[in-house]
Specification:
- The protein has 164 residues and is mainly α.
- Helices cover 55% and strands 7% of the residues.
- β1 and β2 form a beta hairpin.
Length: 164
């Protein structure tokens, strides 16, 4: 994903989800639509998708069209579809890109709407699944708030406990 700073409200949610998953490993998060459809989550997901740029999907809609339509309105309609559980992903646009050996590699391009939904789901699900990773597997952590907190803890231990 892009290199944008995660908004505080999103970090707070991610930290809470991670803490719950860590404290109660057997806990099941049954309904996450309410988290994925939050305005701050969808806005950050859109910003991450926007920073990656990318081509339009099967609907032909690009970022300029979304912003001309009204970003808040577009995100609001997406949030409503998620909350009402009527959201359905669109088909994938298939394109072929040339490889160095002269062959073609198939590439699937999702619509912006689907990319934003997938990114929003990732923002919510990553901290839950990262709670299951052992501390020595921090290289697989992708949630910036958790990685930063881990390194602050490591730095604190080295400085205070080991005197380094």
């Amino acid at each position: 994903m892009g290199h944008l700073s995660t908004p505080k409200s999103v970090q707070k949610l991610q930290t809470a989800l991670h803490a719950k998953a860590k404290a109660e490993p057997g806990y099941r998060f049954y309904t996450l639509y309410d988290k994925i459809s939050r305005a701050d989550i969808l806005a950050h997901a859109y910003a991450l998708c926007r920073s990656n740029q990318g081509a339009p999907g099967v609907d032909g809609q690009d970022f300029a069209e979304v912003e001309a339509y009204g970003l808040e309105r577009w995100l609001g309609e997406l949030a409503l579809a998620l909350r009402e559980e009527t959201y359905r992903p669109d088909p994938i646009r298939r394109v072929y890109i040339p490889k160095a050996n002269g062959k073609l590699r198939p590439l699937g391009i999702s619509t912006l709407r689907d990319r934003v939904c997938m990114t929003a789901a990732t923002l919510v699900l990553e901290p839950i699944f990262e709670a299951d990773l052992p501390p020595e597997q921090y290289a697989y952590w992708t949630c910036p708030a958790l990685v930063e907190r881990h390194w602050l803890t490591v730095r604190h231990v080295f400085r205070t406990e080991l005197g380094l």
